[in-house]
Amino acid sequence: MAHEHKLEIFRGLLKFKSNTSKIWGVLVFLSVVTAIEVALGIAKPTVLTGTNLLGMKLLNWIFIILTLVKAYYIAWDFMHLRDEKSSLRRAIVWTPIFLVAYLVFILLFEADYVYNVYKDGFVKWNF
């Protein structure tokens, strides 16, 4: 009993004729997102590095969001989550999203605490 995979991406926006052409389409999409990340990492626009959002530079937030987009799309397409029931998709996708948000919160909260301890002079900047 062979299972037919959907040959479309972006919720049916792009349709392909074969699995091979679909794999190439996904490769192009992931390559474009990666190229954007690399270009931003090399250029480091001052507008994005000077702007702070929730205690972190806007450029770092863009990197986190683009990485999550790539991870989501890899799971969605290559792990065939789009073919599963919605409850399983939600359990697999939303759990890491909440976990990453929680870990980012912990990272920012602890980093702010360490910065304030060093800034107030309780510990020297000896590294």
What keyword list fits this structure?
mainly alpha; 4 strands; two-stranded antiparallel sheet; 127 residues; 4 helices; 2 domains; elongated; two-stranded antiparallel ribbon
Description:
It contains four helices and four strands. The protein is mostly helical and 127 residues long. It folds into two domains: 1-83; 85-127. A two-stranded antiparallel ribbon has the order 1-2. The longest helix has 34 residues, at 86-119. The mean pLDDT is 82.
Q: What low-confidence regions span 5 or more consecutive residues with pLDDT below 50?
A: none
User: Total helix count?
Assistant: 4
Mean pLDDT figure: 82
> How many strands, which pairing sense, and closed or not: the largest β-sheet?
2 strands, antiparallel
How are the SSEs placed, and which strands pair?
Elements lengths: L7 E2 L4 E2 L3 H25 L2 H5 L1 E2 L2 E2 H21 L7 H34 L8
Summarize the structure.
The longest helix has 34 residues, at 86-119.
